[in-house]
Backbone:
């Protein structure tokens, strides 16, 4: 326990060694008290900092730390003020959060009539998202630096039901130049369907350009020489695909398409029946 400063027998100097003043502990005397010259003491602050302090500053309570006490008290006061004024904590003076920047950027793009991709073509932000708090409640925090705000329907507005946090890869697929296909009740970019179904996206695009139905374009196997040896059974007869094609008078690749796009009976029907 730190001792209390006291003056000894008359004539002896004041001894402050070991006495605590606030966060300061007196270690040793640096300069004795003399007429016209203040005594000086070496002290150590609780934070570890060492400094020299005069006798009067210690005994009057003018100096109670190396300065860290004042900084700590100031930080507490500022934090209390900030807590009363901050609504969401994402736009502090120290820097806006990435979620807040995404929200602000959305508004900037849509307000700029010179931006042909957003404001210039009428893309708007819904009324609810004029307040950042509502945007945050609907979208949540930005998941990572790899994610940015994306509209699922690139021709739609910024609304809770049309937005998501997406990676660059997802956004590149979701552009106006990328076809969107509806299959099994769900509409997705062509590239995403190709990835999900493990098919070549260039092959799917080629099939769509040729007029293939979406289901056939996405699910029909790529024709190869091995496809000719595929066994097909119809009306109790089993033959290789190539044999069925020869029987029907069509190319094996054409029959491969028909089997993927049409019912079996129609795919193997004679030409006359299709006329």
Residues:
């Amino acid at each position: 326990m730190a001792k209390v400063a006291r003056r000894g027998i008359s004539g002896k100097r004041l001894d402050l060694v070991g006495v605590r003043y606030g966060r300061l502990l007196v270690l040793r005397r640096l300069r004795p008290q003399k007429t016209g010259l203040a005594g000086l003491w070496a002290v150590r602050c609780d934070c570890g900092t060492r400094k020299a302090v005069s006798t009067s500053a210690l005994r009057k309570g003018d100096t109670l730390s190396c300065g860290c006490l004042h900084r700590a008290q100031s930080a507490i006061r500022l934090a209390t003020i900030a807590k009363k004024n901050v609504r969401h904590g994402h736009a502090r003076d120290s820097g806006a959060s990435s979620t807040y920047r995404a929200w602000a950027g959305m508004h900037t793009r849509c307000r700029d009539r010179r931006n042909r991709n957003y404001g210039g073509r009428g893309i708007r932000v819904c009324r609810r998202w004029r307040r950042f708090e509502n945007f945050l409640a609907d979208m949540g925090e930005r998941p990572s630096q790899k994610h940015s705000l994306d509209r699922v329907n690139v021709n739609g507005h910024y609304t809770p039901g049309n937005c998501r946090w997406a990676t660059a890869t997802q956004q590149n697929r979701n552009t106006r130049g990328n076809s969107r296909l509806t299959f099994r009740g769900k509409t997705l970019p062509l590239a995403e369907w190709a990835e999900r179904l493990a098919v070549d996206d260039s092959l799917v695009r080629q099939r769509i350009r040729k007029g293939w139905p979406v289901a056939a374009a996405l699910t029909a196997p790529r024709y190869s020489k091995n496809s000719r040896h595929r066994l097909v059974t119809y009306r109790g007869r089993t033959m290789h695909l190539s044999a069925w094609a020869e029987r029907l008078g069509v190319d094996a690749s054409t029959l491969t398409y028909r089997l993927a796009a049409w019912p079996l009976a129609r795919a193997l029907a004679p030409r006359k029946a299709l006329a």
